[in-house]
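Hi R.,

Here's the input for the pyridoxal-5'-phosphate complex you asked about:
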Amino acid sequence: MITREDCEDLDRKDPLAHLRERFELPEGVIYLDGNSLGPPLRGVRERVNQVLDEWSQDLIAGWWDREWVDLPLRVGRRLEAILGAEAGSVICTDSTSVNLYKAVGAACILVEGDILTDRGNFPTCLYVLESVAARWGRQLLVVDPEQLEDAIHPGIGVVAATQVDYRSGRRHLLEAITRRAHLHQALMVWDLSHSAGVMEIGLGAEEVDLAVGCGYKYLNGGPGAPAYIYVSPRWQDRISNPIQGWFGHARPFDFSPQFVPASGIERMRVGTPDVISMAALERSLQIWEEVDLAAIRAKSESLVGLFIDLVAQELSGRVEVLTPLDPARRGSQVSLVLDEAGRLISDLAEVGVIADFRTPNVARFGLAPFYITHTDVFEAVAAISKLV
Ligand SMILES: Cc1ncc(COP(=O)(O)O)c(C=O)c1O
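And here is the predicted structure with pyridoxal-5'-phosphate in place:
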C-alpha cells in the first residue's frame, strides 16, 4: 500500500526538488500538461523584457549589436548538450512541422527509396510526410508502431518516426531502429518533441542522420516557441535544404539573386529568426546546465512508475493503462484509457489538476521531472479515483 507519507518521503530524497521553485506556476495547481506546453521559468520574463528594451533602444542595430542574428546558433549549442549531439549540429529555427519537411525532403534529395513511418506518429508528421512523398515521387508506407523496426527493408530510403508517442507515451527504441535503417542504407529522421529534455538521447553516439523537435513542451520555451533541427556532421556538406531562404545563404547580406548554401548547419535556416520567442527559449534552456540528464530521467521514471503503481492500487478495473509497463519503452507521461476521458479531464481541471484529453478516450498526464513531485502524483491519482 503506497501512502501519501511514502510520497513525501520520496520528495525529501529527490535531488531535483529545489528546481520546482524556478517555475512560475499558479498556487494550488498540479500541472500535468508540460508535455503540451511547459510553464515559464523564472528569469524568462526578465529576459523577454530585456529584448524589448534592446529593441526600443537599438532598433535595427540590435541584430548586430545585441547579437540577435546569432540566437539560432546559440540556442542550438544549448540544445546540442540536451540532445547528445555533436558541436555545430543543431540550429533553432522554424516550427517542428516545417523542420520535418526540410529534414525528410533533404533526405529524399540524398537517397532513393520509399518513406517509412508508423500510425502512432503525430498527425502533423503524417501530413508532412505525405506532402514530402508526393513532392519527391516516393511511396509513403505507414505501419503499426510495433512493426516499424521489422518493416525496414531494402527499398526504404528514409525512416521517419517520433521517439515517444504523444498519445500513449510509448517509446521507440531509437538505437535499434536507427541501426536497422542504416543496415538497409536508409536515412533515419527522428522527431524528439516528446523526449527532448527528459531523457538521454545521444544523437551523435547513435549516429542518427537527422532530427527535429519542439521548443514548447518539456523544453518550456513558451507558446509557439521555435523548434530545432539536427543534421549529423556526416551529412552537413552534402545536404540541401529543400526550402531555400536567404538566412540559409552563405552570405545573406550580399542580397545575391543566386542561392549559395551556407556551410554547416546554417544551411538549414530559412528566414528571419523570431528573436523574442527564441530569447525566451534560450533562457529556459539554462536550467539543463545544472543537472545531468541521467538524474532527470531517474526522476521521470520514478514519477511515471509511481503513477502507474497508484493507478493499480486505486483504480484497478476502472481504467486501462495505455502506457507500456516496461520503463525502457516509455517516456515521461502516463496515458489512461476510459470511456469518459474527456469529462474526467474537465472535472480534474475544476479541482486544480491540469492534464489533457486525446480523442476518443485517452486521458494524458505529463510528468515533467523539474516541477512535479511524488506528492503531486499521489494527489492527482486520488483526484482521478474520486472522479472516475
Ligand atoms: C511529435 C510532434 N511533432 C510535431 C508537433 C507539432 O509541431 P508544430 O510546432 O509544428 O505544431 C507535435 C505537437 O504536439 C508533436 O507532438
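One thing worth noting: The radius of gyration is 21 Å.

Cheers,
M.
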